[in-house]
Amino acid sequence: MKVQRTIKYEEELNRNFPHEVADYPGGENLWDCIQCGTCSGTCPVSLYMDHTPRKIIAMIRGGFKDDVLKSFTIWICSSCYACTVQCPMTIKITEIMYSLKRMAIDSGYFPKKFAIPVLAREFVEMVKKNGRVNEGLLTTKLMLKTEPFKMLKSASLGIKLMRAGRMNMFASEKIRKPEEITKLLDKLEEK
Amino acid sequence: MIEKEYAYFPGCSLKGTARGYEESLLQVFSTLGIKMKEIDDWNCCGATFYMSVDEMLSFTLSCRNMALADKMGGKMVIPCAACYLATKKTKDYVQKYDTIGGKIRGALNEVGLKYSDKVQLKHPVEILHDDYGLKELSSKVKKSIEHLKVVPYYGCQLVRPYTDVDDPMHPSIMDKVLSALGAKVVNYPLKTRCCGGSLMGTIEDIALRLNYILLKEAVERGGNCIAVLCPLCQFNLDCYQDEINARYNANFSIPVMYFTQVIGMALGLDKEKIGLQRSLVPADSLLR
Ligand code: SF4
Ligand code: SF4
Ligand code: SF4
Ligand code: SF4
């Protein structure tokens, strides 16, 4: 049997990482965590995660930057805030998960064609252009970019929704002044 | 009674997959005499996807909506739970973090808008419960809905993380509204357990299982319909029942209604008027 070390040597850790996370709004009291595990216990999807929420907090504090940002956990989190309202130390775990998602997107730390960042980006583009979102079009674009084969399976649901008047791919959901949105967002990016 | 007119923010879903929610909300409010006007030229609130890509953009989008609502008197109605949370979080952060607030105010200025922190955010269920009143509501019942055994499903975004609507894990505000109308409300411990939200579009395997658990518990507890307050909860629980049945060898066929549709039934409104025909699991067996 070959023995393998599962945690990192000190020199492989990123000492600055916990401070980066704590600097985001909502990350302030990261250091108060008492590792009680309440978050993992309440989380409805922790059993699908590679690292539970409690462990993620510990890993952030330890400086395991790569492992945290590569983790599936941050994408499986559905932002339901159950952990946040139950945490005895009022740590905003959900907001921390959001910050980690943003960090992972910014530094390209996720599997290619992985649906969530693709969906997020498509969403942003659509809002930038139209000010609103057409859900049917959004999901179609997502599938084309990630799993074109799923289109066939989902087509029957799409047809049912169209029949019920709940989906119209050609309706242009658009605000009257989309340029106002563009201007607003450009202004933000300037500063 | 309510004097003031509300500024209505529909959000994208109520114009698309959740049309039945909008239809029933408008019908119910006008029947009850609650005045409400759609915000002119509102934009998407940015909700969760924006939050994961760029929080500032999301905050700015919500601030534009609040600035528009402010011009209409500042009482904003938000029926989509995800929009509701995104807007509420924005309001909170703009107040708490000067860096965020300052930047956004500046950007809004540029397009001639002004953000005011006096805007009040309300979900329709709060308006009915707090402003309209349960007594008044129960006096408006035209048709008995006593045969409904309603499973109250709140989902997560309406009651969390801000806890000013109700208890974040065991809310009862919708239970009270529906009981006031004569429906039997089922005791449902999973009422705030998340359905997975947009995971249905991204990691379907997880979302199907979550919804299977919710449906199974609803049926085992004796419910004959589920009432929801969020477009996405309705979508997941209603539109995937076939697939869930196939995958888990089940035979669910339980109607999932927006709570405003249940109210519409009690007010004696036609099925088509409250968009019940748009549900994929038909509610016809419950219509009397
Ligand atoms: S619930 Fe809070 S204190 Fe407990 S492990 Fe999770 S984050 Fe730490
Ligand atoms: S917010 Fe995320 S981590 Fe927290 S309980 Fe919900 S799914 Fe789990
Ligand atoms: S939360 Fe969803 S429905 Fe509400 S405005 Fe945003 S995208 Fe549209
Ligand atoms: S759709 Fe799911 S994730 Fe969204 S509010 Fe409802 S329960 Fe929560």
How would you describe what is shown here?
Chain A: Keywords: 4Fe-4S, Iron, Iron-sulfur, Metal-binding, Oxidoreductase. Chain A: One of its GO terms (molecular function) is oxidoreductase activity. Chain A: This is Heterodisulfide reductase. Chain A: It comes from Candidatus Fischerbacteria bacterium RBG_13_37_8. The complex is a heterodimer of chains A (191) and B (288). With 191 residues, chain A is mainly alpha-helical. Chain A has two domains: 97 residues, Fumarate Reductase Iron-sulfur Protein, Chain B, domain 2 (Orthogonal Bundle), CATH 1.10.1060; 76 residues, no CATH class. Helices cover 55% and strands 0% of the residues of chain A. Chain A is built from eleven helices and no strands. By secondary structure, chain B is an alpha/beta fold. Chain B has two domains: 119 residues, Up-down Bundle (Glutathione S-transferase Yfyf (Class Pi), Chain A, domain 2), CATH 1.20.1050.140; 146 residues, 3-Layer(aba) Sandwich (Rossmann fold), CATH 3.40.50. Helix content of chain B is 47%, strand content 9%. Chain B has 13 helices and eight strands. The radius of gyration of chain B is 19 Å and the shape is globular. Classes of the chains: A mainly alpha (191), B alpha/beta (288). At the A-B interface, helix 6, helix 7, helix 8, helix 9 and helix 10 of A face helix 2, helix 3, helix 5 and helix 9 of B. The structure holds iron/sulfur cluster (4 copies). The site of one iron/sulfur cluster (SF4) has 14 residues of chain A, from helix 6 and helix 7.
Describe, in short, the structure shown.
By secondary structure, chain A is mainly alpha-helical. Chain A has helices spanning 17-23, 38-42, 53-62, 65-70, 73-76, 82-86, 93-106, 115-130, 135-146, 150-163, 178-190. Helices cover 55% and strands 0% of the residues of chain A.
